[in-house]
Amino acid sequence: MTVRDFATCRRRFVGWDKAGFAAAGPPLGIVCRSTIRLRAGARWRELVPPYIFGIIAHRVLARMRYARMARVIGFGIGMLAAATASCVWAQNSRPASKLNVLFIAVDDLNCNIGCYGHPFAKTPNIDRLARRGVRFDRAYCQVALCNPSRTSLLSGRRPDVTRVYDNSTPPRTTLGPAVFLPEHFRAQGYFTARVGKIAHGSFETAVAWDVAEDRRGRVRNNKSDGEEGASPKNSAAEATPVFTWKKSDAPDSDHVDGQTARRIAELLREHRGKPFFIAAGFHKPHLPWIAPRKYFDMFPRQSILIPDEPSDVRRQIPPLALITTRPDGAHLSEAQNRNGIAAYAACTAFVDTQIGIVLQAVDDLGLWDNTVVVLWGDHGWHLGDHGGLWGKLTLFEEAARVPLIVFAPGKQAGVVSPRLVELIDLYPTLVELCGVPAPSNLEGTSFVRLLEEPNRPWKKAAFTQVLRDKADKPVGNLDGPPEGVMGRSVRTERFRYTEWGGPAIAELYDHDRDPHELHNLASDPEQRPTIAELRRVLARGWRDVAAEVEKSQGNRPRDQDLSLKPIRR
Predict the structure, then answer these.
(1) Which CATH architecture group holds 100-459?
(2) Residue 470 burial by Cβ neighbours in a 10 Å radius (0-12, 13-18, 19+)
(3) Which residues are catalytic?
(4) pTM here?
């Protein structure tokens, strides 16, 4: 023990006699040096109890003139503190194990889920995940269509940067060598794998993985495999029905999603010993609505609720707002609507069972302590609301709102956050949770703090957009401003405000009074102050909203630059 160490200890433990220090000096010197080292970490306070106990014991015994015992106690406590320091320092000096990521994507899944309060949904496995983590009640996609939504999420960039507004534009058309979410984890030493749909369809190769697989299944679209049906066409000229369904007689494991779940379970088992980012991409409830017969049997037609709306629900809604990816279903009967809703519910129940297989693997392998589990839908889906809308690519709540559940070790469990979040926020959230460096160009906001305090103040707005051309189809012009009419919608905790090409064609819905967005208030004079404020929010955009969050929460500056390792392809 050096003179300086002894002096430091002497200053810390005023009142010790020379004999006590002489006996306890060497171990206390170790303690002092360890304490100095540990002050940079979070565990140095673990040394306080041995110090305090030693001081009290020594001083009491010294006053009682038991000097020899005081020296023994001083020596013993010094050794105990030294041992504690050694253990704590060793633990503190070891690199913390990285958290894994289990990334569960469900295609076309809206919020008709049990944990979201749906009256007849049967989703016990998704509900079980919600009881473990945080369910976000107001989560929104950037575009209510597969390719642009997934491109935005995976790249961390918004549609006006990706320039992906449809299902035919390759994700990297303008992004070039951008580092997509799983690639970033791969560059940090994670094993990465996907089974099923994570990017959109034929663009899966735009994202590099260590393992990338697509399961084919053994269920075929022919009548010999089961009972099938479709909605009647409105006219002979209509190219496709609104929806199709099929009750399959094949077991779950013969369906694509059944094989995806079982393969994901295998990958979790094979790679549980090292950090992983494993993604399960489930196809249902995407059309065609095919599932084993037993799932259809869960939903008798008389139990199905159909939208309860005024007959003139479309009267105040702009025509541009009423276009989806499916033919208009205004001509469908009540019974036909029930068939469609029941088929969607059956496919949701089917995919929930497959998700249960994956979650059971997490249980069996004991992965909950070191694995972040995220379940998300890429956009919502209309089921006959607004006078017969089916499909996606609108700016209504049914299409823009998505299910989002996040479990993270050590964070809140079984709670609901009412705050606004967006799918684009997942990239920064996951890198923060896992302690890996974040790229500087991400346009989402990490919501890790909402996993700790789900009700804390957060974003004041979320943004969704769609692009329509003169033929009312999604388009993308990559060399200049988008051609056609851009619909832009801003969602606050109370209102949704939408503009189609500008304020001349607008919608305003008050969710406190009209949660299904059936009454457009844009022409109501009493709403002018609200509209003026929401126009300002829409015009200033996401950057203004993100800056307010970062300022209020004390987040690090957005322009912090963190180097990335090159992508392996």
Answers:
(1) 3-Layer(aba) Sandwich (3.40)
(2) exposed
(3) 146, 200
(4) 0.81
